[in-house]
Write a structure and sequence with these properties.
Elements lengths: L1 E5 L12 H9 L3 E9 L2 E4 L11 H11 L6 E5 L5 H10 L5 E4 L3 H9 L5 E4 L14 E4 L9 H9 L3 E5 L9 H9 L8 E5 L2 H9 L1
Parallel strand pairs: 1-2, 1-9, 2-4, 4-5, 6-7, 7-8, 8-9
Antiparallel strand pairs: 2-3
């Protein structure tokens, strides 16, 4: 199981999606999740509507090339529709291949797939049937209110040849310990196609691989 830092490896909330958090994540050997929007026609890193100066995706890609020699996985959370062409061009320009996009609207998901981007569909208690499952290369599994999935749900996706990224409960302000123990007890942490997106990447590394 690969560990992805949520908005980088930050130590305090103000560091989320910052250059410092991205460099720390890559230097520690973690891939990461981050958020993409457009600002004045430019692709930028931003979770909320951009206000003021934001890090450009170009700068993010430079950090990735400089600090991630093993091309750690990138989960690119698409927060605005219509980014396919500028994103695809940027990924190709920087030679970034170990990535997936997710969280798009249904129509935008279709455009992403038709554009040749690597797409993860979503599954949650709100979206029990993932859209475009056959075409997607993976599944982003989220639990907004409680941990609803069981080990068989995850294993079924893996057996279908899908990559799976699980959202750790602390991203929704719930304790994570029982969920991490569930993954370990069911030996899921040894699955090569499984990822965990967490606010505590070093804690997860120590727990699962220490």
């Amino acid at each position: 199981m690969e560990i992805l830092s949520h908005r980088g490896f930050w130590l305090e909330a103000a560091e989320k999606n910052s250059e410092m958090a991205f460099i720390r994540s890559f230097n520690a050997g973690f891939g990461l999740e981050t958020d993409l929007r457009d600002q004045h026609g430019e692709l930028v890193i931003a979770h909320d509507l951009p206000q003021g100066e934001c890090m450009s995706f170009e700068r993010f890609a430079e950090l990735y090339q400089e600090h991630a020699p093993e091309a750690y996985p990138l989960a690119l959370n698409i927060k605005s529709d219509g980014l396919q062409q500028i994103l695809k061009a940027a990924l190709e320009r920087h030679g970034i291949d170990n990535y997936f996009v997710f969280d798009m609207s249904a129509p935008d998901t279709l455009v992403c797939l038709n554009s040749g981007l690597k797409v993860f569909t979503r599954q949650s208690e709100i979206e029990p049937e993932p859209i475009c499952y056959a075409q997607a290369c993976g599944v982003w599994i989220d639990c907004f209110y409680q941990e609803w999935m069981d080990a068989e749900d995850i294993s079924n996706h893996l057996r279908a040849g899908k990559q799976v990224c699980l959202v750790s409960p602390e991203l929704h302000r719930r304790p994570h310990e029982a969920f991490w123990q569930f993954l370990q007890t069911n030996d899921l942490h040894h699955a090569e196609q499984l990822m965990l997106c967490t606010d505590f990447p070093q804690g997860a590394k120590d727990f699962f691989h220490g």
